[in-house]
Amino acid sequence: MENLYFSEPRLKMTMFERITVRFVIYCFYAIFAIAIGAFLFSSVDFIFWFGVLGVLFLAYRMIHIGGADKSLFSLNGILNSGAEINVAEYFSPESISVLENTLGKSIASGKEFFLCLADFLARDRDVKEGLERMSLSQNEFRRKLGELLKESPKNLGSSKQETAVKIENLAKAAFEAALAENEKFVEPRNIFSVLGGMNEEKISRLFNSLSIVPEDIKNALIFSRFKNKFRWLKKMPASLGGFANRPYKIRHRFMNRAWTARPTPTLDRYGVDFTDLARAERVGFLVGHQNEYDRLANVLSRQSKPNALLVGEPSSGKETMICHLAYELIKDRTQKSLFDKRLVSLSFGNLVSGAADAEVALRVNKIIEEIILAGNIILYIPDVHNLYKTSGQQSMSAADILIPAIVGDAFPVVATTSPREYKEFIEPKSDFAGAFEVIRVNEISEDEAVKLLTYDTIILENQTRVVVCFEAIKQAVFLARKYFRQKLLPSSAEDLLKEALADASQKGNRLLSANDVIAIAERKTNVPIHKATKEEAEKLLNLENIIHQKLIDQEEAVKSVSRALREYRSGLSRKGGPIAVFLFVGPTGVGKTELSKILTKIQFGSENMMIRFDMSEYQDKQSISRFIGSPDGKIAGSLTEAAIQKPYSLILLDEFEKAHPDILNLFLQLFDEGRLTDNLGRTIDFTNTIIIATSNAHSDFIKSHLEAHTPFETITEELRKKLTDYFKPELLNRFSEIIVFKALSISDIEAISKLQLADVVKTISEVQGIDLSFDEAVTKKVAELGFDPVFGARPLRGVISEKIRSVLAEKILRGEIEKGGNLRVSLDGQGNFNFI
Predict the structure, then answer these.
(1) Dihedral, 314, 318, 323, 324 alpha carbons, nearest 10
(2) Which one of 33, 309, 329, 758 is at 20 to 30 Å from 221 when CA atoms are compared?
(3) CA dist., res. 329 & res. 338, Å (int)
(4) What are the per-10-residue average pLDDT scores of the chain (836 residues)?
(5) pTM of the model
């Protein structure tokens, strides 16, 4: 804000002058109080009443002893008027005192002003509690601060002019922070909340050494500000002010200040006046969605087409924004054209319930007439798609009457719908859709979700008597965003936090830490989320050996995927894209899919976390609708819906080269940025997935060069060039690695045969309790029968099923093998299998 400045005479005085002024003020009040006391005992009437006035004056000063000269609540309309604002007038006496003392100490000691300020602020009760919520003790904070103060050279502080500029910039930032947090005055906590954003080298060092994120400070300070205020509340207040004197009965108002409005009895009967709810402090609290809200207010305030349509998923915050608009309307914090407006919701279900066609038409016409005559109504229609979606003659008669009024701009309208219903019911009706300005309501950010959940946590603490660390809130939001995408933030994070609180309460724990939240998330997902322990680190370092317990050969492929997993688990993987994107190229039956399964089990906990697509099913252009959804919203996208249901998973794209070119183009953005826009306009997140595309392209080229003993690096480089026959260069460049799989030799098949027969031994032991063993000759025979130069190891499972499993099944059913018995499989002289 360019119209802000900071001017405080006390900060321009010397220390002696400030002490003198303070002494004179204290003496004045002491003498004044003594005089007033004497006046009260005077027998002269006018002196007595003068004493009474003096008492009232002192009482007023006592009540407002902690207040600033002006309240931030009085700024309505002033901020945008262009008038200059002295932010010092909005600083509480305590805040001014902190700046005074800091300036005095900085000048006297020659130390850095901001370090001295941090030292004074750390003693503030609110700041102290905020630091404790961030798992930082005041002693630890001041110890680190003391070390930096010692490093700061004496008598080398900034000049008075430089310090004055720093104080002014700090004061402006604190003023804006207090305004954003809906504070009454600028308090010391607001000064501390902006300290990390002042680009001061020593303060940055202090915060970095303690792992303090400036944005976290603002949210952690919410605890100290509202903990006592919310002490007896069992649910979140609808607004952050006024609930102490909430009326028991909602008072209905329809008249505007100009006395030109008219009553609306029919609308009141079938609707809900949100502005009445806002006056009763029942609605109005909003975190995030500032851009969407500003657009909403601007659209409703214009003269032509003042209709807004909010399109968003359930729990995205559509109605919360509308409730906030109602709250802003009663506070006159909107455009002037919206002053004195009433925001009324119309329930379409109630309107048509139990009424004949003629009665419905009469009701709708009467409501439209009342709205137009009143002249101060903003009509809110939730789930506006029901105007078309609801079946029955009554509903359509209501829609037929109401829709022309909306299209004709008879009065401002705000409506809501979901992306799917918008595509299916609203968008095809071009006249109706054209009457609205479409505003997409997206999920709030992680920072906004943390802030909202911090408010909610105060109430949850009252309910469970469990103290929640700030890191636990952050972790709940982070994990919900990553693993639980069935709901949007903040609902998904709130569910996770509540489950963690319930678990802690059941165990009798009085403190909920970030690790407790992680433990609950791990239990729900069966995925290792916590920081790698020593044993896990050892496992990651030996990942190649672990994979080779289930996969034979393919050294280069195993090294590449192991390297990607180690980078991810250590936090060093690339930001802003999927965890890794691989292209597995090679002949069929060489282990491409098998490695994908092993990787899924290691990283995601279960093979069920693999989402598999056969891309040969998406060879025509029309199949793109099945992949990301149809334009009309009737067909859901198989890829996008799967990613919503399993945001933390491995996506396997089999026979990738067979997909239609238009589908391949979809993966340009997906591989690069980790996101994809579906048919409903939703942005689907893929940043927590590993994506593996498999291809048999140029398998003969790979096989012939391997047989010719061409170096593997040369084959890979040449193959990358030849793959442009199937894929665009820009698509190939987006893969983390292109991994070439070798054709399997007969010795490889023997090793795979041994692994698969070991699985049979394990299965029959667990199910039937039978001790089964195979001769070495059996392993070689199975490998011989299952080897195919064209299909690799793929026929092997069929051979084992036919020659081993089916025979065992028959013997078990005939009772030839008893539970707990022993069985050995060998070869006879003719090469047949013997079961003894």
Answers:
(1) 130
(2) 329
(3) 7
(4) 87 82 86 89 86 87 82 78 88 94 89 93 93 90 91 64 91 94 94 93 93 92 85 60 42 67 91 92 88 96 94 93 94 90 89 81 92 95 82 56 86 95 90 93 94 93 93 95 88 95 94 95 80 74 91 90 86 84 92 93 86 94 90 87 89 95 93 90 88 91 81 83 92 92 87 91 89 91 85 86 90 84 86 85
(5) 0.80
